[in-house]
């Protein structure tokens, strides 16, 4: 069979890619990265061309004839070659169908089935009779139109299909697949514009007309019709009159859907780089023009000016005519950065995170693809943005756990960024004040080049840290210790600001029965319900389910329920009682449900309208508030309780980041840590602000225990609605893993199997969860091991009845 051929990935959970013949009339458009319509069984399906070849696939029997591609749906590829390669890598590394990886990489809607559009043929364009026909007239006016839309727009939908078919038979109209990227097209608005001088007489006589003309004068670009209608009484009547006289025109204009978080930033010219910053800049900049691939670890203490270095490097990349990608952990952090980046890069910037409305996202994605926007600032999935000719990737706060997606494609965006940079042959900068141990390890092996910013800007001192042993506090001071209360009062007295940090929202962490000891639990998840006092409601923080507080204990029937433990809402109440004059803002997922709320709260702190900021991890990192001089950590132990080998690492990172919010301006900072574990090694490291020493100790113990980064972990997660079925499937899976491990052991490639065990969160959203852990010494071994197990699992009926997810490099053992 003669070529060319295309390897196509269907947008579905299909394990394998498929091959199709490329008919000669589609040859030019059928390029890798373009979406196509292909036959699949008796249906058609949509997918994307991953590669072209002149020979059929080698394992194909010669008598098989490949079916042809039906249609190419894009004028130009929507995925760049490096992104195609990245998706293939992710599919293989995370054991996930490539077609579904593509769905993650493309904006929502882009993998939907294409719409059928109707348009005039060249003959139809010319023939005057189409002008008189209802359908023809609509098509003349609107251009190609979706079939459904056309039908709806026709005044007489009856007989529509019949009439359309007649026009088709006569060669005046045709159907086509129009994808419009599968995305809603650009948004259009109607604007009104003055097209000539209106007759002065009538203007004098009518106030409405007078105000209409006044509005339109001086607005050369036109005024949106909606505004005119709002401002002028009887606007439609007067517009019709003026339009008939030829003095105004109403026209449609494409409107860009922008999205801007209006954090007020003082206008300031870029500062001169400090010698430390300059040194970092000089180390990276030679790589910006043409690579090669080089990872850098930018290890800079809190407040050392990493952001400025990123912006200078991005600017330099743009000067070389290339694009740049900057990843940040989540919207809480990117709002402030967004304002800074927008100030510096203006219209060249695209912002990509979950807080950006869908329409604006699609506009930006199209702009990025077309090369109209060359700097992308975004959260996790921004790693998939089709930036033109990228010359630099930055991953800010690279240690942040939110870079790991915890469902579906469980990828780590930092690792994906590294792979993409390698595929492109460009530098990648991993920045943090507390780099992940994995990154520290790589830099010690000289695989990543370390770059250091050991001092704060202007040699401002790092904050001083103190510990309060909560075991010695009276029960009245359970939330705010005596020391923290006093310090808080002094800080506000001095006109400064304070930050109180607690990694738990809500009022009380649970409701307990004083008679039988039962804890009120979510009916869908195996966790206790959190009490929210303002709403007087119990809420599950995992599935969102809400319940009223029962009068009696559901277990024993006695009326003895009381709240226990505390969250940020309770801290707020406590501060209000202690310091009635404090101006408090609380930032957590209960008070901030939209990005606008967050911006408003952050603005309140920046402007000084608020002087006490209470929050969860949303406020713990990244923010630069110069007037915060006191940081109080209400409970330094919360993160230690996670059943995860990284609990120590996470705790130190979190606490050092929070501590780093203090004393960033002219006044030095003070940090008070409340704890019940004052001699824990993690707290000792935080107290000394000595991250490297912590890394030494932690890496040594990980090496002894053979934990990452010295070994590789993978978690199989088995879930179903039946507890017994889940347990049984997990048991069989573990047996399968142990058999496989024995064979691997025999060939000198050891792998260890742990479990099966119920997940710490045994039930989540009505599904029971068990897991099996696998540990191997090399990535290659883990890959082969998992492939072997998965292919065995596919032929086990007990395992086919449950859902089996693979989580490679798992984070929390949730
Ligand atoms: N060269 C410079 N001269 C003067 N001020 C600077 C300079 N570079 C940065 N700054 C200022 O220093 C402050 C701290 O910088 P930045 O927020 O970038 O720190 P960071 O390293 O990102 O800290 P963190 O890790 O805590 O987020 C900011 O207010 C910034 O405007
Ligand atoms: Zn729940």
TrEMBL record:
Initiates the restart of stalled replication forks, which reloads the replicative helicase on sites other than the origin of replication. Recognizes and binds to abandoned replication forks and remodels them to uncover a helicase loading site. Promotes assembly of the primosome at these replication forks. Zn(2+) 2 binds at residues 522, 525, 540, 543. Belongs to the helicase family. PriA subfamily. It holds the Pfam family DEAD. Its EC number is 5.6.2.4. It catalyses: Couples ATP hydrolysis with the unwinding of duplex DNA by translocating in the 3'-5' direction; ATP + H2O = ADP + phosphate + H(+). The keyword Protein biosynthesis does not apply. SMART domains: DEXDc, HELICc. Its cofactor is Zn(2+). Component of the replication restart primosome. PANTHER family: PRIMOSOMAL PROTEIN N. One of its GO terms (molecular function) is ATP hydrolysis activity. This is Replication restart protein PriA. Binds 2 zinc ions per subunit. Zn(2+) 1 binds at residues 513, 516, 553, 556. One of its GO terms (cellular component) is primosome complex. Residues 548-705 form the Helicase C-terminal domain. The gene is priA. It is an enzyme of class 5 (isomerase).
